[in-house]
UniProtKB/TrEMBL annotation:
Entries under PANTHER family matching the protein: B3 DOMAIN-CONTAINING, BINDING PROTEIN, PUTATIVE-RELATED
Stretches assigned to the TF-B3 domain: 1-80
UniProt lineage: Eukaryota, Viridiplantae, Streptophyta, Embryophyta, Tracheophyta
Recorded GO MF terms: DNA binding
Subcellular location per the Swiss-Prot or TrEMBL entry: Nucleus
SUPFAM superfamilies found in the cross-reference section: DNA-binding pseudobarrel domain
Organism expressing this protein natively: Citrus sinensis (Sweet orange)
UniProt-listed InterPro entries: B3_DNA-bd, DNA-bd_pseudobarrel_sf, Plant_B3_domain
Protein name: TF-B3 domain-containing protein
Cross-referenced SMART domains: B3
UniProt xrefs under Gene3D superfamilies: DNA-binding pseudobarrel domain
GO CC aspect terms: nucleus
Principal subcellular localization: nucleus
Keywords of the record: DNA-binding, Nucleus, Transcription, Transcription regulation
């Protein structure tokens, strides 16, 4: 799933139906189901197929232009912040009006309207790299910037606790490097271990991740630790009032010599049988 920004939902949510249509330049329209819950509005059924078809990976940037009646024009940019080459299915047909509409929504047209910067080889920069550079020029890396790292991770589909909304410059660099390396296939959560997790042998999974992807009935979860041994662990689940949950990890703390600042990447491989994949990035 992909969350639609809350500000857009506040302004236009009343216009959105149960299904949305996504269209890229010179491509066929994609029908995507919209899901509404207390966390907002999400592109749900059909989003994965759309992202897979255009090889959208973690770190890609998508620009959505809303055209009323739940119709969106979409531009997709790769790691270098340059527009991708859009594929067309064999034998797909667009009528004259659709072809003209797609052509009118090319990136050249978009640049002209919005004074977008030319993407030249010598200045190819990922939008996220620009963000880190801007953070470095701010006082603490968590200043008032147009897009903070927390928002960017959320747009990428990575759940993270709001407690980590303010990142230091060094944390931003580490998190950004890890996020760019991920090939997201499953619901994902990123956690920076605080000292309390080490002291109490518990890791707290964000409520945004738990509410949307985990089953409240789960009493324990099987966790596959992605290391040299690919060890499986059964961790007890303690549900919290805010909707998140804590995993007991006494054995993991000892086995992996965990320390404050280590980064966990949880991927929910199966909601039905409660299986998580865990990748650990040591400080």
């Amino acid at each position: 799933m992909q969350r639609i920004p809350p500000k857009f939902v506040r302004d236009f949510g009343h216009e959105l139906s149960e299904d949305a249509t996504l269209a890229v330049p010179n491509g066929r329209p994609w029908r995507v189901r919209l899901k509404r819950d207390e966390g907002g509005v999400w592109f749900d059924d059909g989003w994965y197929d759309f992202a897979k078809y255009y090889s959208v990976s973690a770190g890609y940037i998508s620009i959505f232009k809303y055209g009323k009646n739940s119709n969106f024009r979409v531009l997709i940019f790769d790691f270098t912040a340059c527009e991708i080459n859009y594929k067309r299915e064999e034998g797909s047909k667009l009528d004259k009006r659709s072809r003209q509409s797609a052509a009118n929504y090319s990136f050249e047209n978009f640049k002209a309207k919005h004074k977008y910067r030319e993407c030249e080889p010598q200045i190819k920069k990922c939008r996220k790299e620009e963000l880190v550079e801007k953070n470095e020029s701010d006082d603490g890396g968590g200043g008032d910037i147009e897009y903070n790292l927390w928002d960017l991770l959320t747009e990428m589909g990575i759940c993270i606790s709001k407690k980590h909304r303010a990142f230091s410059t060094e944390e931003s660099k580490r998190v950004l490097k890890i996020a760019r390396s991920l090939n997201l296939k499953y619901p994902t959560s990123l956690i920076i271990l605080p000292s309390s997790s080490i002291t109490h042998n518990r890791v707290y999974v964000p409520a945004t991740f738990a509410k949307h992807f985990a089953s409240r009935d789960a009493k324990s979860m099987e966790v596959r630790v992605s290391n040299e041994r690919h060890k499986f662990m059964n961790m007890n689940v303690c549900w919290r009032e805010n909707g998140g949950f804590a995993l007991s990890m006494t054995e993991l703390v000892e086995d992996e010599n965990l320390k404050e600042g280590d980064i966990f990447i949880f991927e929910l491989i199966s909601k039905r049988v409660a299986v998580l994949n865990l990748s650990i990035y040591h400080l």
